[in-house]
Amino acid sequence: MIFVIILASALVGWSLGRNNIATLFGPSVVSGVMNYRIATVVAGIFVLAGSIVHGSAGLSTVNSITKVSLDISLSASIGTAILIILMTHFSIPTSITQGIVGSLVGLGMINGYVNWNIVLKVAIFWAMAPFGAIVISFISHKLLSIQFNKIRSLRKRQTILQIMTLLFGIYASYSLGANNVANVVGPFVGKGMLNTP
Question: What is the pTM of this model?
């Protein structure tokens, strides 16, 4: 049983990494600010660090959407992985959280129990996230561009861009790892399938 759980979780984790490297470093790599190989190594290191240090935070949320069992958890994980793989094939960055929550809600509806309070909480934050990002990015762009435009040397500008890109990429990678452990193994935590330290 543990081998099947590890295999399903690995499939979800692989599809997550395949889909989200573009989100983390896509603009930086395409614009030539960062090398693709460096971006993938940095992402791998800090996604792992985020997973280990802060990865347990959302586990209780994911595994309380419905009554988990091995068949439900496997179905949700495999369904999510296939969805993410298909979206990646069509070059569409996709939220793995939406995939796993949607899978668990669908399976919960089939089995007659969905914790709608948890689903509503998650949906509210989904709705808030893009608008929060718009506001924060607008303000930060205005503030940073004031200082950045004072720099006349193109070499200094390039160096600053590379350093900031690396730092924000590290933070984004760490956050991705911390935020997505629950999506990868959350359905298996509880009912004795997987335990957390």
Answer: 0.77
